[in-house]
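User: Could you walk me through two proteins back to back? I'd like the raw sequence and the C-alpha cells for each, with a short line separating them so I can tell where one ends and the next begins.

Assistant: Of course. Protein one, sequence then structure:
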Amino acid sequence: MTEQSRPLAVFDLDGTLADSGHRQHFLEGARRDWNAFFAAAPADPPLARGIALCLAAAEECEVVYLTGRPERCRRDTRAWLAAQGLPDGTLHMRPNTDRRPARTTKLELLRRLGAGREVRMLVDDDELVCDAAERAGFPVVRARWAAPTETLKDAQEREGRT
C-alpha cells in the first residue's frame, strides 16, 4: 500500500496531543495576550493518551495534523511534534489573519482531505468541531483526556484563534 492510498488519521494539537493548560492564563480577563499564549506553546507537556493514539494510528494511517494555531507558529510546532517522537505528517495551520471558528475552518479542510482519501478518524478535543465533523459523516474520536477551561472554549469560539 502506497502512502497516498493509506487512510488518513487527522489529529488536533492543543488539548489532544499537547497540554496547553499551563498557558491558558494568558487568555483570562478582558485583554487576552495571544502572542504570549502561542509563544509558550513549545513548553507544552505531551498528553500521553493522545500521543499513544497517534503512534498507534500511524501503523495503518498517514497522520495529518490539523490545528487552529496560526501559521506563524509553524517552526515551533514542527519542533514540538519531532521532540515527542510523533510521525512526520502534513501540518495544516490557520492563516495568521483567519479568525473564523475552528468548527468552520477544520470542517472545510476535512472535506478537502476526504474528497480524495478515506479519513479514518479525526481526533479533537473541541466538542463543536467534533459535532460538525460527525454531522458531515466523518468518524470522530473525542479527546477528553485534558481538562478544558471555559476561558479557552470562549476564546476559541468568539475569537477563532486556536
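----
Protein two, same layout:
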Amino acid sequence: MLNAERRLSTADERRETVLRTALGTFGAKGYYGTTTGEVAKAAGISQAYVYRLFPDKEALFLAVVERCFTRIRESLGDGVAKAEGSSPEAVLAVMGDVYARLIAEDNALLLIQMHAQCAAISEPAVREVVQRGYARTVEYVRGVSGASETQVQEFFARGMLCHLVVAVDAPDVDAPWARTLSAGIRHY
C-alpha cells in the first residue's frame, strides 16, 4: 500500500485562491457589501487566514482591483498581437474587440471596475489604485497604438459606454434610448 502524502498548499497558492474568490465575491456585492468572512467562506478557509494574507478588507479589495487591471492589460496585449495592421485605428479596434469579449466572458472584471470606480469617490486608497491602473492602461494603449490623444480618449470613452450598455442590458431593451446608446458597441 502506497503512503499517500498530503500536500499542503503554500501561502502563495492560498493567496491566489483568495484573490480569485474575492474577485467574484466583491464583483457580486461590491466593496461596501462584501465582508472578509464571505470571501473566506467562499474560498474554503478561515477568516483569520484571510487576515494572515491581507491585513484588512481594503488591502484585499485593492489587490483584486490591481489584479483586474493586470488581466485587462494582458488581454489588450493579446489583442495587439492579433492586429491585422499597425495603424492606430487597427490596433485600437482589435483592443476594443478583445476587451468586449473579456468583459462578456468574465463579468466579474466589469463589476470590479464599476465597484472600484464608485468606491474611489470616497475611499482615497481605492482612488489611488484606480488612478494608477488607468494611468498604466492609458500609457500602454497610447504606446502600442500610436494613437492621438483624441483617439485614446475616444477609446476609453467607448469602453465606459460599453460598461453602461452591458450594465443596463441595452441591446435587449426595445427603446430608442437603448438603441442610441448601444449602436456600434460590440457586445458578446
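Residues 27 and 107 are 8 Å apart (CA to CA).

Let me know if you want the two compared in more detail.
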